[in-house]
């Protein structure tokens, strides 16, 4: 598997790339090739006196390369210019990446609905799965909020085509996953709902059976209410290391707008999020 690690060379990015447990998790799911990418924004001019931004960034990336090479990955670095999220998605497609990985500071009480603009734009436009690795806030030497990436997964499903596409990620995640919670949220229309219908329960049991066959201890959690709110509450209750879900969108316009559920979960989840986009 090939992963594109997009970094702005911040403390959050450094924490994500230097966490040995996270690197071991990537190795377990079959990642053997890492591409490091940093983007020099278009408004930073190469001719600014006394400053060679590209040289500085290549030197900084060399420290990351050493860490990844020591961990056993094949490594290639890229320093490019342009709009960050556009260059990231473009390079990911060019190198046929299987996943994009970014480090992102966890939310603060004053920013409970905000994420970095680059991460938000990647969530809207990436054509391969996007793994947002949450990093501590308010410290100069941050650590990832979760040491393990895939040990405890929370998978949210509405049984849509995109949710099914996200579930297929377990085909390689299973090598690093020990526990999983399957979350399905029903939308009540002003009335209380009874137990899940036999059809819904059968689908959930089938998914759980697949995971159990892979040796993953699995539980089912059916909830009523607003999907994004309930997924986030389930995350707070079950404390997964990563929330896995698919994003909606059939047309190019809808892909750019991103489903509100996906965007809210990416923005507000306390832990990591693995967002799987629809097929273009």
UniProtKB/TrEMBL annotation:
Gene3D superfamilies: HUPs (3.40.50.620). Residues 2-132, 150-277 form the UspA domain. It comes from the Archaea. Transmembrane segments: none annotated. InterPro entries: Rossmann-like_a/b/a_fold, Universal_stress_UspA, UspA. Belongs to the universal stress protein A family. This is Nucleotide-binding universal stress protein, UspA family. It comes from Halohasta litchfieldiae. The lineage of its organism: Archaea, Methanobacteriati, Methanobacteriota, Stenosarchaea group, Halobacteria.
């Amino acid at each position: 598997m090939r992963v594109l690690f997009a970094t702005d060379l911040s403390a959050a990015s450094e924490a994500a790339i230097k966490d040995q447990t996270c690197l071991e998790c990537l190795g377990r799911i079959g990642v053997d090739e890492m591409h490091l990418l940093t983007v020099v924004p278009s408004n930073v001019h190469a001719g600014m006196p006394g400053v060679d931004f590209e040289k500085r960034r290549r030197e900084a990336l060399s420290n990351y390369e050493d860490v990844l090479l020591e961990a056993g990955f094949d490594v290639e670095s890229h320093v490019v210019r342009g709009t960050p999220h556009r260059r990231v998605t473009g390079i990911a497609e060019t190198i046929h990446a299987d996943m994009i990985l970014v480090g992102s500071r966890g939310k603060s009480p004053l920013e409970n609905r905000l994420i970095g603009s680059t991460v938000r734009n990647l969530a809207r436009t990436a054509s391969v799965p996007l793994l947002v690795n949450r990093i501590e806030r308010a410290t100069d030497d941050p650590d990832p909020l979760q040491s393990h990436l895939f040990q405890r997964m929370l998978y949210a499903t509405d049984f849509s085509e995109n949710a099914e596409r996200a579930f297929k990620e377990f085909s390689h995640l299973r090598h690093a996953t020990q526990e999983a919670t399957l979350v399905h949220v029903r939308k009540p229309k002003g009335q209380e709902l009874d137990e899940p219908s036999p059809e819904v329960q059968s689908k959930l049991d089938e998914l759980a059976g697949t995971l159990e066959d892979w040796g993953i201890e699995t539980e089912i959690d059916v909830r009523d209410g607003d999907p994004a709110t309930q997924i986030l509450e389930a995350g707070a209750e079950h404390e997964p290391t990563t929330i896995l879900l698919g994003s909606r969108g059939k047309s190019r316009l809808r892909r750019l707008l991103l489903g509100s559920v996906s965007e809210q979960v990416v923005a507000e989840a306390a832990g990591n999020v693995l967002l799987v986009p629809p097929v273009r």
